[in-house]
From TrEMBL:
Pfam families membership: PepSY_TM_like_2
TM ranges: 21-44, 157-179, 191-209
Domain of life: Bacteria
InterPro entries: PepSY_TM-like_2
UniProt keywords, alphabetically: Membrane, Transmembrane, Transmembrane helix
Protein's name according to its UniProt entry: PepSY-associated TM helix domain-containing protein
Length: 210
């Protein structure tokens, strides 16, 4: 029995070392993200009590006649980008990057919806007169961070970050659970606390959520 115990010690030490290594690596990777998501979890939970003060910017411009002819016509399209020349002119005249953004073309106008975290924006181009209208609304930093929490209008790169962050959290949690298992013999409260963490939200959901 003593020989078996001695033979098992190197293996136990190996896995303990590996678990500690992956636990601290995953914790380092997801530390800031966990703080961000925890803080915005509170702000999202109390969104009705947190007053937002939207700030709106409205701009107008006139598209030059040569560029207006490029947009003239009565054909209707869904999800078609502006011609490069028009997008470049808007970028210089209105300090607005619309390159590659897809809009809805009707016989009367072209409408581009440009939602973003913490706000919204749109651009309208009259295909008859060439009048441009742009409006941007910002709802503040809390709304911005809340939208990042939800991945709302944040683009595919942020979506990939959330996936990688979630995977790091899974590694952090699983290695933490395995470390608890390896130290449970010396800490009698380990499994009661783990069970409480499982049972408490389940009981609250069954009793108070209908």
């Amino acid at each position: 029995m003593r020989m078996q115990g001695r033979q098992g010690q190197p293996e136990h030490a190996f896995w303990l070392k590996q678990l500690h290594r992956w636990h601290w690596i995953s914790s380092a990777l997801c530390l800031i993200g966990m703080l961000l998501f925890a803080a915005t979890g509170i702000t999202l939970n109390h969104a009705a009590q947190i007053e937002a003060k939207p700030q709106t910017v409205h701009r107008e411009a006139q598209l030059p006649a040569p560029l207006l002819r490029v947009l003239s016509g009565e054909e209707e399209h869904k999800g078609v980008a502006l011609p490069a020349a028009v997008a470049d002119w808007i970028g210089h005249a209105m300090q607005l990057d619309v390159s590659g953004r897809k809009g809805d073309w009707s016989a009367d106008d072209i409408y581009l919806s440009m939602p973003r975290p913490g706000g919204d924006a749109w651009l309208s181009i009259d295909r008859v007169t060439g009048k441009l209208e742009y409006e941007r609304t910002a709802r503040g930093w809390i709304s911005y961070l809340n939208d990042l929490h939800k991945g709302r209008n944040a683009g595919p790169v942020w979506g990939w970050f959330i996936d990688v962050f979630a995977l790091a959290c899974v590694v952090f949690s699983v290695t933490g659970l395995l470390l608890l298992k390896m130290h449970a013999a010396q800490r009698g409260a380990t499994w009661p606390l783990v069970a409480l963490g499982l049972v408490l939200p389940l009981v609250l959901a069954l009793i108070f959520i209908h």
